[in-house]
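Lecture notes, continued. The same structure-token format from the folding unit now serves as the input rather than the output. Read the line below as a description of shape only.
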């Protein structure tokens, strides 16, 4: 098991931190675990795992960079993961804190994690077997043996030994 020794710290508006705590609690996750999911997805995608776009008419807004950000989020993460996301976000021209704030805003606007969270895509060998099985079924070719239970399958496998 990887020992989590790197620390990620960021400051944010206290109200946003409270809203994100409530959001992830409703999903059954901690705030730190939600950020870890985001970092993992950024590493897999080699960038932000959702589109950033302007919508509607062009607006000229001034962002108050001096606005008070007094809530702090601190979490421990795998040092290698931290270095990977720092590199990715640097290439995108942002800090990890800015990326996490974008992620939080996206979570709140969609009231959900803004990308699919699930099992990884099967490898090439598994995909080939799945394709072959689907093609055989489409042609009406059924497996040589059918089993009504897992126990029956294992009994048959054991009998071949």
């Amino acid at each position: 098991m990887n020992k989590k020794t790197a620390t990620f710290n960021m400051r944010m508006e206290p109200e946003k931190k409270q809203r994100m705590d409530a959001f992830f609690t409703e999903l059954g996750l901690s705030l730190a675990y939600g950020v870890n999911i985001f970092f993992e997805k950024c590493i897999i995608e080699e960038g932000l795992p959702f589109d950033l776009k302007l919508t509607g008419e062009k607006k000229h807004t001034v962002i108050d960079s001096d606005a008070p950000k007094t809530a702090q989020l601190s979490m421990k993460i795998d040092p290698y993961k931290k270095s990977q996301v720092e590199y990715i976000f640097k290439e995108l021209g942002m800090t990890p804190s800015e990326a996490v704030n974008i992620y939080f805003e996206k979570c709140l606007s969609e009231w959900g994690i803004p990308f699919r969270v699930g099992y990884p895509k099967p490898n090439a060998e598994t995909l080939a077997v799945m394709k072959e099985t689907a093609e055989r079924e489409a042609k009406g070719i059924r497996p040589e043996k059918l089993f009504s239970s897992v126990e029956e399958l294992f009994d048959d496998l054991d009998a071949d030994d």
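Point for the exam: The helical segments are 14-26, 31-45, 79-91, 96-110, 124-138, 150-159.
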